[in-house]
Design brief:
The protein has 2 domains: 114 residues, 3-Layer(aba) Sandwich (Rossmann fold), CATH 3.40.50; 157 residues, Tumour Suppressor Smad4 (Sandwich), CATH 2.60.200.40. 28% of the residues lie in helices and 33% in strands. It is built from 10 helices and 16 strands. A 6-stranded antiparallel sheet has the order 6-5-16-13-8-9. Strands 12-11-10-7-14-15 form a 6-stranded antiparallel sheet, covered by helices on one side. The chain has a 4-stranded parallel sheet with strand order 2-1-3-4, sandwiched between helices.
Length: 305
């Protein structure tokens, strides 16, 4: 088997670049040939992921949630797709938490060497792809508007500092959701389309299944302070494993449309996405990825968490 290792040199305060030779040597235990590629930008990461499809058996990569999105979206766009291996090195690493992939480099490499994989759903929003979340409203722009230098200095706290703006001025969007032949209208501070347990570092969607062919759709109801406190209730109740139907509307489906005002900015996997109305589709079991061996527990596609 052949593989390529792609890494973001700025992610994780540059620690991956220092460990590059160690990573290559470790991967050579499993792979006959290992090529290394250092990315230059998000666009470069995406294009490289597209380019390597059909040329390598596995694509191993290091970076944060943004890098994961760039890699997975590039791969998802192709008909022949390599197995993905992930070494988390970002600030939050929501996707790694979903898959239970350790942030420690040595342990993350061990996951790849153990060769256990699972298939994972991919979302399509208009003509773009996403892996774990598409969101609209309050707090959703924090991940891409927070400056890289702030994240490097303050880590996860940089997001908290930036969130203060949204606490004082939460946004409200008018949306219509067309799902399963029905249409419903809402004024909402936050819309979440999830294929994830954790978002923003909070594991509040504990009932999620990552490859059941459906999304969890949460529309927070407008209330006190433009619904800000309902957002807080959503996260708190989710941490304890239940959903508060008084503060949100919950749907689950594989295909639907959400109408929004033309200037409404969607966030997909922590990056700026399309504006306005979106068509959402679940591409069931679309990518394959290495995950930790789960002792005494057989992996079942529709049961994977």
């Amino acid at each position: 088997m052949n593989c390529i290792f792609i890494y973001n040199p700025t992610s994780g305060k540059g620690k991956i670049k220092k460990k590059r030779d160690y990573i290559k040597k470790t991967l050579e235990i499993k792979f006959r040939h290992v090529e290394i590629y250092e990315t230059k930008s998000a666009e470069d990461t995406y294009l490289k992921a597209v380019e390597v499809c059909g040329k390598y058996d596995a694509l191993i990569f290091a970076g944060g949630d943004g890098t994961f999105n760039d890699i997975a979206c590039g791969v998802a766009s192709q008909s022949v797709r390599p197995i993905l291996g992930y070494i988390p090195s970002g600030t939050v690493n929501d996707i790694a938490k979903n898959l239970k992939i350790p942030k420690n480099i040595k342990r993350a490499l061990k996951v790849i060497l153990q060769e256990q994989t699972v298939f994972h759903d991919v979302g399509k929003i208009n003509d773009k792809y996403f892996i774990y979340v598409a969101a609209l409203g309050t707090f959703t722009s924090i991940s891409y508007r927070t400056k890289q230098i702030s994240k490097k200095i303050f880590g996860r706290m940089a997001y908290a500092f930036d969130a203060v703006k949204d606490i004082f001025k939460p946004s409200v969007n008018r949306v219509k959701i067309e799902i399963d032949g029905q249409v419903a209208a809402y004024e909402t501070p936050l819309v979440l389309i999830l294929n994830s347990i954790s978002v923003g570092g909070f594991p509040f969607n504990r009932k999620a299944r990552l490859n059941d062919g459906c999304f969890d759709v949460m529309i927070v109801k407008k209330g006190v302070h433009k619904g800000f406190f309902n957002i807080i209730r959503l996260f708190i109740s989710g941490l304890f494993g239940f959903r508060n139907n008084r503060t949100m509307k919950y749907y689950t489906d594989s295909r639907f449309v959400i109408e929004a005002e033309p200037e409404s900015q969607w966030c997909i996997d922590g990056e700026a996405g399309p504006k306005g109305t979106v068509h959402i589709e679940n591409l069931h079991n679309h990518i394959e990825i290495y995950i930790p061996v789960r002792r005494n527990k057989k992996i079942k596609s529709k049961k994977f968490q």
